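Lecture notes, continued. The same structure-token format from the folding unit now serves as the input rather than the output. Read the line below as a description of shape only.
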């Protein structure tokens, strides 16, 4: 029996993770959940049964939850750290979007927990540090991001010197084919209507700008220890092939499955086993075509910005991620136009002097700096 804690249980991935755990009662047990502050959703989510550990890392919301329910709750960042390193937990699913769970992730690895990681931002900011800690503490980190879950499956048992290239596919996001209409005319409804995946708002905006693919290149680089120039992005509108590995001899290994996050989540929890699942199957005869395109980097400048930061390396990726989180939040709160997103990120990257091999403290410092720098630029955008 694997005892799982889910960090970010009320988000899109977190809810799917709870479904997967409930679907495997003989193998998986929910040992704990953690949420940032959506305690109303949390209360609704726990009607099926209360897990032994509950953490709320927004302190005011934690107090409210304790008052409203009369139940014990682990409070704040310390409470979240207590949950992810608790002896009754052996596997932690990190599913909260954003970077504020970096310290808990580090503590979970240091406590020897198996990690199932959906929060790609954490690998973008701290991939070198995280993968080093995973090796040092002899634990495992299995990606949940669908492309990386696909690569992880294709690469199982493949020695690194036999990998020629990793190919990450993307559906193109909600704006693929609409860009000709002009970025200024793009509406919020268009941005938030992803054609293939139903996801949270942050990643849906990242999909619209293609920043998501840029973050995924950096994520693949750290996860699989493959040089950046050997990670390629292709647009694949059918979103059936989630990633491919080109082997040294030119052979291509692809992973295909429906767009259903329960599959990569289950595999991250079952690895190295593979269990049956209720996820619908791909019906090959219903696929009329599988198309692959080069991404248009002029129309999607955020992809190029991410690759630039990745080439600069070190803290440049921290600044990229912090600036991106700040602009996406400002866009979702209606403080920034869609067309200004790449401009603000580029401005923050220009101001930043990247340092190589940052430690945790340096990462957190650049993270805070880049958000503040982005917020300042956003304020000047809206007043000019
Ligand atoms: Mg993905």
């Amino acid at each position: 029996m694997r005892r799982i804690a889910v960090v970010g249980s009320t988000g899109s991935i977190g809810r799917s993770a709870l479904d997967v755990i409930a679907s495997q009662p003989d193998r998986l047990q929910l040992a704990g959940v953690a949420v940032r502050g959506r305690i109303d959703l949390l209360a609704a989510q726990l009607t099926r049964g209360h897990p032994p550990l509950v953490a709320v890392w927004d302190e005011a919301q934690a107090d409210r939850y304790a008052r409203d329910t009369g139940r014990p709750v682990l409070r704040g960042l310390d409470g979240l750290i207590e949950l992810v390193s608790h002896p009754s937990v052996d596997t932690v699913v990190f599913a909260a979007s954003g970077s504020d769970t970096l310290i808990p992730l580090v503590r979970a690895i240091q406590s020897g927990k198996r990690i199932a990681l959906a929060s790609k931002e954490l690998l973008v900011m701290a991939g070198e540090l995280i993968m080093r800690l995973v090796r040092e503490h002899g634990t495992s980190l299995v990606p949940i991001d669908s492309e990386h879950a696909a690569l992880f499956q294709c690469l199982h048992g493949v020695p690194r010197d036999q990998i020629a290239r990793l190919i990450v596919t993307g559906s193109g996001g909600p704006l693929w084919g609409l860009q000709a209409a002009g970025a200024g005319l793009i509406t919020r409804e268009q941005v938030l209507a992803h054609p293939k995946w139903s996801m949270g708002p942050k990643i849906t905006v990242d999909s619209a700008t293609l920043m998501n693919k840029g973050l995924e290149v950096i994520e693949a680089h750290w996860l699989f220890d493959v040089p950046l120039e050997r990670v390629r992005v292709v647009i694949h509108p059918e979103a059936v092939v989630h990633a491919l590995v080109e082997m040294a001899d030119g052979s291509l290994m692809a992973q295909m499955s429906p767009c259903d996050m329960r599959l990569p989540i289950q595999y991250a929890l079952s690895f190295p086993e593979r269990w049956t699942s209720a996820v619908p199957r791909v019906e090959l005869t219903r696929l009329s075509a599988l198309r692959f395109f080069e991404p248009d980097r002029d129309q999607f400048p955020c992809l190029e910005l991410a690759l630039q930061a990745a080439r600069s390396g070190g803290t440049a990726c921290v600044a990229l991620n912090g600036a991106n989180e700040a602009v996406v939040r400002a866009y979702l709160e209606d403080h920034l136009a869609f067309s200004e997103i790449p401009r603000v990120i580029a401005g923050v990257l220009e101001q930043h002097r990247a340092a190589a091999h940052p430690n945790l403290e340096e990462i957190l410092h650049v993270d805070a700096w880049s958000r503040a720098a982005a917020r300042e630029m956003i304020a000047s955008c809206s007043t000019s």
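Point for the exam: The chain has a mean pLDDT of 93.
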